[in-house]
Amino acid sequence: MTATTSIRPSTKPLLRALRSPGVMPPPIWLMRQAGRYLPEYRALRDKAADFLDLCYRPDYAAEATLQPLRRFPLDAAILFADLPLLADGLGQKLDYREGEGPVLEPIRNGADLKRLRLENVHRRLAPVYETVARVKAALPAEVALIGFSGAPWTLAAYMVQGRSGAEFAAAKRWAFSGDPGFDALIALLVEATVEYLDGQVKAGAEAVQLFDSWAGLLPAPAFARWCVRPVAEIVTKLRARHPDLPIIAFPRNAGFMIETYAEQTGVDCVGLDYTVPLVQAAALQAKSAVQGNLDPQYLVLGGAAMECAAVDILERLAKGRFIFNLGHGVVPETPVENVARLVEIVRGWRR
Ligand code: CP3
């Protein structure tokens, strides 16, 4: 008997809940669980030269990843990095301005695409893989490590628009124009995302999440073409390399399209924004695991309002395949004690 080579099902609650219904208590992690609401994050941010330095220094980024786990008994760590880093890895100039978020030199046509180089991705993003390896080595045994990337449409939205705002009109117009250049950009981002997530998995990530934060901006046919299809391709290609890798996707504000999304992408788990009704979420659990979907403003508010909203989610979804999370990221004004209380509520849940 060679016990060392046998594959044992994971004992980590988060990984179990992706495949099995009714894991009790349900696992919990929070999008943006690292960040400005934590005083220790603000202190680390002040030590770093700038936000990119924080993302690209494995010692700093690993520390930022681990900070929320020292305070709260969460079931997962999510790699500390940022969504536009993949654009930077492809060679697009990226900058952060105080109070503005990411700013990229826009790509607007087929000629601009020539500035991007898939073959540079692993070398330029090697520090991110190093962060994953460091976090993995430091993680408590029952905590899972989630890697992430932006999904192609959301990455493209930033890369074409150059920054948040204006409803990503320039990105939409290029996509809708019929110019094959936009499809070429999406195709490149599919390949780049597969490489980037493959790098994270090889470094130790045990599950991955695709953030499609701007999925809700697209009309249905465009959603099928630039949100569903590219994510389905990423899932197929990643599974060819890592057959058992759990894949979570968060198509924010996908509305009526969420069921089609779960069916056609083949992801293991769909992240639900806070607009998704819990009856619809429960129906979705027949097709995939679900993750979500407390409005982050309840976490700012705390108290009975937060407790009622959290219990409502637990009552309706904890029987199925379920991971507790927010419907979008933790906001900077969130009181730390409310996060502690929410984790306690979910941890104490038994049915
Ligand atoms: O704890 C975690 O969730 C891990 C780290 C993480 C960050 N960004 C750190 C961050 C993750 C997973 C992201 C994903 C991300 N980044 C998304 C998808 C999720 C979403 O929020 O919809 C998007 C759209 C981005 C792009 C981005 N990064 C924006 C628009 C901004 C500016 C807005 C803001 O909150 O400041 C960022 C900056 C950013 N990314 C910060 C952090 C902690 C704040 C930077 C700071 O410290 O000043």
Word description of this protein:
This protein is of the alpha/beta class and 351 residues long. The protein has one domain (13-347): TIM Barrel. Helices cover 49% and strands 12% of the residues. The chain is built from 17 helices and nine strands. The strands form two sheets. It has a seven-stranded parallel sheet with strand order 1-4-5-6-7-8-9. A two-stranded antiparallel sheet has the order 2-3. Helix 8 (126-138) packs parallel to helix 11, helix 11 runs parallel beside helix 12 (220-241) and helix 12 (220-241) runs parallel beside helix 13 (258-265). The structure holds coproporphyrinogen III (CP3). Residues 31-36, 45, 51, 78, 80, 82-83, 101-102, 148, 164, 211, 213, 329 line the site of coproporphyrinogen III.
CATH architecture annotation name? Alpha-Beta Barrel
* CATH topology-level name: TIM Barrel
- Main beta-sheet strand count, sense and barrel state: 7 strands, parallel
Order of neighbouring strands in the sheet with most strands = 1-4-5-6-7-8-9
Shape label = globular
- Report low-confidence residues grouped into runs of 5 or more: 1-7
Number of DSSP strands?
9
Secondary-structure element string? HHHHEHEEHHHEHHHEHEHEHEHHEH
Write a brief caption for the model.
With 351 residues, the chain is α/β, with parallel strands linked by helices. Helix content is 49%, strand content 12%. The site of coproporphyrinogen III (CP3) has 19 residues, from strand 3.
Task: Give a quick set of tags describing it.
single chain; 351 residues; alpha/beta; two-stranded antiparallel sheet; 17 helices; binds coproporphyrinogen III
